[in-house]
Predict the 3D structure of the following.
Amino acid sequence: MPELPEVETTRRGIAPHIVGQKIIDVTVRDRRLRWPIPSAFEQDIVGGTVATTRRRAKYLLIDLDRGTLLVHLGMSGSLRITSAAEAARKHDHVDITLENGVILRYHDPRRFGSMHWLTEASHILLDQLGPEPLSDEFSGHYLFRQSRRRTGAVKLFIMDAKVVVGVGNIYANEALFMAGIRPDRPANKISKARYQKLAHVIKEVLSTAIEVGGTTLRDFVGGDGKAGYFAQSLQVYGRGGELCRCCQSKRLAEIRQANRTTVFCLKCQR
DNA sequence: ATGACAACCTGTGGGC
DNA sequence: TGCCCACAGGTTGTCA
C-alpha cells in the first residue's frame, strides 16, 4: 500500500491518539515479519510513554521516553487506531494498547513490513538513506550531480533510496510524466534543466498527495480510517493502454522496469 | 560503484 | 463456479 504520502498520512492520523500516552500492553500474534519480531519486543516497549512521532523515508518512528519504535509498512501493511471492542482479524499481527484505551493495530497480509526497537540514535536501516524529497537538500542540482555516472534508466535512478527516499512506483511514474521525461532514458543523458523540472514535480506530486491523504488503492486507509483521495489525480499509473490525458491522441505505453510496471506517453515524454 | 535479479508473502483479478 | 497464472504500493541480499 504505502508510499511516502501514505506513511505520512498514517503518521498524522495516529499521532493525536498516541502521543503522551503510556503503553500498557502489547500483543504480538505473528512475529514473522520481514525480520522476525524479537521475543523481548513486548517487554522493551511496555511501560514506555509516547513522546513524538516522526517519519524518515517510508519508516515511521514512534519515539518513547526510553527508545524508538521503528515501523515499516512494506507493501501491504497498515497501522490504525482501534479499541478492544473491535476484535482482531486475520493478519492483525500486533496490538499496542495505550493507557487511554486506544489500540494501535498493525495489519499486514504479505508481512513485508517490519518492527524494530531502537535504543541507539543510528540504525543500519536508516544510515544509508538519501535525502528526503521534500527537503532543501533535494534539488535539480543534486539530482544532476548524482546522475552523471548512472547509465541505468532514470526511473530506477529516482527510485533508488540511496539517491532520494520515498519515491515509489506510483509517484515515480507520475513525476516522470509531469516532467515530460521518458522513464527508460539513461539517467546520465538528462540535462540539468530537466532535472530541475523533475525535482520540482517530485516535490509537488508528493506534497499534493500528502495534502489529500495519500493514494487509495484497494483498501488503504490512514490511521484515522479515512480514505485517501490522490487516486483520482493519477495521470498514468494504472492507465496503461488508455488515452493520454495531456495529448489526448496517444495511448499510454506500458513496460516493465526492474520487474515493476512503468506507464508513460511516447509523445509527451522524451 | 552499478546494475540485474531473486527473494520475502498473501490476496486478487483476469482468462479459460 | 473453479483453477491457474500474473501481478500488486517495498526493500534487501547476492552475484556478475
